[in-house]
Protein 1
Amino acid sequence: MSSHIREQTDTLEKLRLDYVHGAIAGLIGGITMAMVTMMLTGMMGMGIWAMPKMIGGLALGPQAVMTGGVAVIVAGLMIHMMLSVMFGLVYAMIVNVVTRELWLTGLTLGIALWLVNFYAVGAVWPAAAMMQKEPLALAALSHLVFGTVTALVASRFVRRAHAAA
């Protein structure tokens, strides 16, 4: 085995993303995703609060999306951030146990979350059906942003850990 291949194999075997770092990466990915989505929905005429209202409506019911007060927006943002942390932990677990790869795992997780949220959850949960009205490109792009930013932040944590070792 050449030394270059051995180095790559050693690096993959040593790759470990701390779960706290995975949670932080997911949170930063979720914040970035929310900011991008809110800017785009604002530019599309849907209003900057469309995304948090839709998410808040999952917990508070579809009628909450229409009334959409501060409580609905805050609930939506809180739910989104909690899910982002949870999916950051899932990302770290997948990287550590299955793939040992940061970037492709992040992109794949983003796409998988979009598909599950918009097609599986939306099909069985009446309150989630309204999410299927979001433009397809916007939904896919926002979830790719989550996966990409989560991977970027995670790669910084891994790089620092390797430099310190």
Protein 2
Amino acid sequence: MIISDLVIDSVSISVAAVLAGGSLSVTDTTLNIGNAPSVTSTTRYWLSTNVGVTTGLVPLNGSRSVPALAAGTRSNGAAVSVVIPASVARGNYFLGACADDGNGVVESKETNNCRATPITVQ
């Protein structure tokens, strides 16, 4: 089957610890590992209690537009500023970048869109 598949190839953050209510920068790379081109999409950022970005999800204010990607190509995003909501409790979390927010791209696998990095909320 010829179909696109978007994944986050890398995600990095400007600081490893941030105060609740504080901001930080997130940079990601979105990659089309499918064998067909994708349409334009959105990568969104989340705070999660697990590395799979599936539980305890807190949506963050940042996102970025990803251009249509040919099979095997990537989009290196510029730094996006996100704010950790002031209501988030102190603790260890994961900041996740998730490709294809809203599932607007038909993909061969819809469960491999996120990658996360550890972060501490102080």
Protein 3
Amino acid sequence: MSEELLATDPRRWAKPAHPDEPQNRMPFHDLLGMWPREVAGGKAVIELTVGPQHLRAGTILHGGVFAALLDAAQGMAAASLAPPDHDLVTAQLGLNFIRPARVGDALIALGEVQHAGRKTAVTRGEIRSSNGTLLATGTATLLYLPMDTGVENGEKLRRMD
């Protein structure tokens, strides 16, 4: 689907921008409908309301959406403690699925840094329903990478290979 069609198609998955949203939105988060609510001091809270586009065959949330939500929460938590002029990338992500989620469920993901060093961060995360039921837990190891200013993203990724 072209970017123009995605931007005008009423079936698109992302919600409209909110005036109180962070300025550094990620297109992938928009695509899934993830909304950061708090990001600071080694913690992050992200919300997502399950829609039909998030389901696997059947009526439950696809595990990849759980994984993406946990990765985002833990990554944003680690990013809040990143050294100056550093980006980060997930090196390891582990998760445990506990209960399913269904269409209409409001999910709240919490990411929290357990250790932040000069080159890596170790985090833990969980996803709960809006009534507090634990749905999934996870851990991650993230690598801090120096930013290469003045280089386009595609070129930077090619250099990392």
Protein 4
Amino acid sequence: MAGYLGWFNAALLTVSLLPFLLRRYRKWTRKKPGKKRNAVLKFLSKIHPYIGGTLAITGFLHGYLALGVIRLHTGYVTWFLVMILFGLRIWGKLSKNKYWLVLHRAAALLLVFSLLLHIFARNIL
């Protein structure tokens, strides 16, 4: 069960990253946005916060089911980065500061590296 939940979380993270990646792809290729692509981006952007919340909950469940205890592990670091992303969004909304987005993106990049480390070298810590 924990293995399936882990791969489900990896899929959630991938879907959560898609709005940013699709916008960057459009910017770098200088293609005019089509109606279909805009509709997909709008939908993905709308569900992005809900995916993050789901990832926070299911990530904790995955870790607890896999280990049975909470201890320092690459999975815990990955989950903690998800919580940092969540906190950055709350901070950005409350403070109306635009700098939160830069921090959010940097933390998301760290999250991707942390997830890869968790998948390929989970017992490194």
